[in-house]
Amino acid sequence: MSGRAAGVAAFVLALLAGQAAAADGPAAASAPAASACPPASPVLSPDMLREGMRQAVDSGLMWKATRDGRAVYLYGTIHVAKVAWAFPGPRVVQALRASDVVALELDMADPGVLEHLRQAIARRPDAPALAQGLQRRLQAQMDAACIAPEVLAPMRPEMQAVTLEVMQGRASGLYAEFGIDGVLAGMGHALKKPVRSLETPESQATLLVSDDPAETEATVGAVMDELEGGKSPQMLQRLAGDWQRGDLDDLGGYASWCGCLDTPQQRADFVKLVDERNPLMADKIVQWHAQGESLFVAVGSLHMLGRMGLPALLKARGFEVERVAFAERR
């Protein structure tokens, strides 16, 4: 899985949930036989929802940062997940309930935010077509994923490619529809708490799309290379497994095993997608905390790692930071 897909903005997954649902229907005519298609996401009945909440355990990674007697909970999420992981465990729920404000990369439960997202990644009418060979490669990946062209056509080509890469998780039961960010946004609203966005749809879109046709083709080509190489599903499974177990050591070594940060361009892209966003998010967290509010902050887990991760940045800003231990699984 590429650094681009691993660090992908949460909004892609919010939109992807709707795209995936649409993909299960119209793709049938042009896609491989149904038996060869990745499984569609399960539809949860009320009984399944109740049972999921009853059996929920804490997954992921969480820190508590304290200053001036008020806490900031930093919860590292994953943007695709298995069904069981979508139900937050008791420590996570407790932290969320104890906080005045829920802060996410973007509030994906806000229809206005989603509309801005759609506009930000919409394909420009005047954009030149991809080179024929590259378009054929993109179409081949859509066929393999059982997605009709019209499902992704409204998106810019870069977003079509990254969406396909993320959707490879379906084969191992990892679905955008159960991404942790969206679940927490819904819970925050259900608890009548203010839900705030740390970023804007437009700022996130600029990380992944370009008006330069050469840059667009380079991005799409790089993702196609990763998809055709067949390593993306294994990397996604490892990343997801680390998150579910809260394996900070292996996550911290992501750069050494992902196979996605081997070139100077890949490393520069990752810095732009992850590290450079963290100080801006940290500044906003500190600003809100200084207003007398306690916060539950949930962002992608890669934003929590290393000297540029949010726990380290808040510690440098005078917070006492400790990792919150979750109960060991039997």
Task: For this entry, give a set of tags.
six-stranded mixed beta sheet, globular, alpha/beta
List the helices and strands and how they pair.
Layout: H1 3-6, H2 10-23, H3 46-54, E1 61-67, E2 70-77, H4 90-98, E3 101-104, H5 111-120, H6 132-144, H7 149-152, H8 157-167, H9 180-190, E4 195-197, H10 201-205, H11 213-229, H12 232-245, H13 248-252, H14 254-257, H15 264-273, H16 278-290, E5 295-300, H17 310-316, E6 320-323
Parallel strand pairs: 2-5, 3-4, 3-5
Antiparallel strand pairs: 1-2, 1-6
Outline the structure in words.
With 330 residues, the chain is of the alpha/beta class. The chain has one domain. It has 17 helices and six strands. 48% of the residues lie in helices and 10% in strands. The relative contact order is 0.22. The chain has a six-stranded mixed β-sheet, sandwiched between helices.
What general form does the structure show? globular
Provide the β-strand percentage band. 5-15%
**Which stretches are poorly predicted, pLDDT < 50 over at least 5 residues?**
18-31
Quick check: average pLDDT? 87
Strand count, sense and barrel status of the largest sheet are: 6 strands, mixed
Number of strands: 6
Q: List the domain count as a whole number.
A: 1
The computed structural class is alpha/beta
Strand order of the largest sheet: 4-3-5-2-1-6
Q: Cα-atom Rg, whole angstroms?
A: 19 Å
Pattern of helices and strands: HHHEEHEHHHHHEHHHHHHHEHE
The amount of helix comes to: 40-55%
Q: How far is the N terminus from the C terminus?
A: 30 Å
Q: Please count the helical segments.
A: 17
